[in-house]
Amino acid sequence: MPKAGKSNQAAGDAAKNDNEKTKKASKTQKSKIDEKELDESLGACADEAEETLRNQEDAPPQASESSELALERDKYLRLAAEYENYRKRSSKERERLFTDARADTIEKLLPVYDNLERALKMECSDEAYYKGIEMTMTQLMEILENMDIKPIPAVGEPFDKNLHYAVMTIESPELGSEIISEEFQKGFIIGEKVIRFSKVVVANIVN
């Protein structure tokens, strides 16, 4: 009987050991399953995070960023417009000053033109002398033309108070109303600026 008791006890211990091994094996297998699920879950989270970052990079700017960009663009456009206006004003001012300087200089030289013109209208027996005056006048007119200075048309043209100065009026049935019949002094213009008005005789002034 004592032997049988020991045998039963040994059998119980063996069964207990088997149960513990089974439990340990079950825990080990469950642990492996949990680790696999955790790895899969972490991998899915990583993929989701990466996809979110890509979407943020490809996505249009947020409202605040778009507003700031629009504000900076508006500032840039305003600055560019102000600079362009300043550049145009400066360019016009420089051109005006340059035109005024040329006009003032030529105005002081116009008496030379007047003297040459009077000399050419005089009778001269010295052909070489007359030819020299004629060449001097031609050279002066070329210089004026190169400086964009032009004589104001007068005889036969309609009277224009912005270009002509009437020193006398006449009645002429041959001419139309307010037509220039004679020029006393040649006028000159540069661009739209009158250097000197033409002094003229006007026919048939309408009151």
Key terms:
Nucleotide Exchange Factor Grpe, Chain A, domain 2, disordered N terminus, 3 helices, single chain, alpha+beta, 207 residues
Question: What is the name of the CATH architecture of the domain at 78-203?
Answer: Roll
Range of helix content: 55-70%
pLDDT below 50 for ≥5 consecutive residues: which ranges? 1-8
β-strand amount: 5-15%
What class, by secondary structure content? alpha+beta
Please give a structural write-up.
The longest helix is centred in the middle third of the chain and has 59 residues, at 63-121. The protein has a domain at 78-203: Roll (Nucleotide Exchange Factor Grpe, Chain A, domain 2), CATH 2.30.22. β4 and β5 (193-196) form a beta hairpin. The chain has helices spanning 2-58, 63-121, 127-146, and strands at 149-151, 164-170, 179-185, 188-190, 193-196, 198-203. Strands 1-4-5 form a three-stranded antiparallel sheet. A three-stranded mixed sheet has the order 2-6-3, with no helix packed on it. The chain has 207 residues and is of the alpha+beta class. The chain is built from three helices and six strands, in the order αααββββββ. The chain starts with a helix and ends with a strand. The model is unreliable at 1-8 (pLDDT under 50). 66% of the residues lie in helices and 14% in strands.
